[in-house]
Amino acid sequence: MNVPCLTLPPMDERPAETTPETGRPPRRGLRRLLRRMASSDAELEAAELRRDTDAEGATPIHACGERARHCVAGTLRTVTLRPRGGAPALEAELYDGTDVINLVWLGRRRIAGIDPGRRLRAEGLVSLQDGRKVMFNPRYELRGAA
Length: 146
Hints:
Blueprint: H1 29-38, H2 41-56, E1 68-81, E2 89-95, E3 100-106, E4 118-129, E5 132-136, E6 139-145
Parallel strand pairs: 3-5
Antiparallel strand pairs: 1-2, 1-4, 2-3, 4-5, 4-6
């Protein structure tokens, strides 16, 4: 019985994304499926938010340094009205899958579209207040719902 012989090109002529044994792309589907099944909903949501942040070209919140301008993107978790120094202030907690930053609009009681669950991109000066990252009066762009 004649069995066709499979010959593989030399290693330096193969595409970079192949396994030496088979000459085919490595199989990652099973590993990815098992990782997804073992992950919690929160972990999957964080991974998706990180991908979205990267796609928008925003800086991950955990990488934002103090006293520097940054552009961040994520989902608003909470929106509260909290007076600061006797004046109204609208505070929103933005989460991007890596960390949280508080966005504070001074002198505002409400901003149309700033609601929990909303995707948002914000730009401004990051500062630390009580150990938390804060951005006062940021420029923002509303994105679609989460």
